[in-house]
Amino acid sequence: MKNLFYRSFLLLATLFISNSPIQAQTFGYVNSAAILSEMPDVKRADAKLEALQNQLQKRGQQMVAQLEADYAVIQKKIERGEASPAQQKQEVQILEKRQQQIIDLEKDMGRQLESKRAELLQPIYEKINNAIAAVAQEKGYRIVFDQGVLLYASETLDVSSLVRAKLGMQ
User: Fold this and answer.
1) Is CATH 3.40.190.10 the right assignment for the domain spanning 2-166?
2) What is the residue range of the signal peptide feature (predicted)?
């Protein structure tokens, strides 16, 4: 009796397993860095960033040149004895203040560039993510990884070309 119960259980388990739909896990990966570097939108964003950087550098260079010129004028006044000690002190304080403004500009320049970069690239990242999600839904992928986090993956799982096509890059 025990043997019959055991056989019946195995038979039912086998039937249950063979009749249940086993879903294949479908995975894919993309090389988002390569896609990003190939996008025309990124090239336009980089050009805007470069223009902003050049503008900020030019402004800084002008401030430095003006500071150096004013320093030379004050130095000549001091050498000729045309400035009293009180005037010298006042002029030095003005120059130190302007020098600090230049230092602050240099610090702020990096923050401005990073902020502008984030502002320009955010819509591009969203565009790529939306394309990846659309490809995943259309092709039935349950998970799509970025190639940067993979140690190994078969090239047959690379869906980068599908994402490029979705973005209109091919």
Assistant:
1) no
2) 1-24
Residue 83 has φ and ψ, to the nearest 5°, of: -120, 130
Q: With 0.90 as the threshold, say if the pTM is over it.
A: no
| CA dihedral sign of residues 76, 78, 83, 89 | positive
> Hey, which residues does 146 pair with through a beta bridge?
30
Q: How many CB atoms lie within 10 A of CB 135?
A: 22
Q: What is the rounded distance in angstroms from the CA atom of residue 37 to the CA atom of residue 39? A: 6
**For residues 86 and 77, is the Cβ–Cβ distance under 8 A?**
no
Strand, coil or helix: 146: strand
Q: How far apart are CA 72 and CA 90, in angstroms?
A: 15
pLDDT, tens only, 122-149: 999 999 999 999 999 999 999 999 988 8
Question: For 83-104, how does the pLDDT look when each residue is reduced to its tens digit (9 = 90+)?
Answer: 788 888 888 899 899 999 999 9
* Residue-range domain boundaries for the chain: 2-166
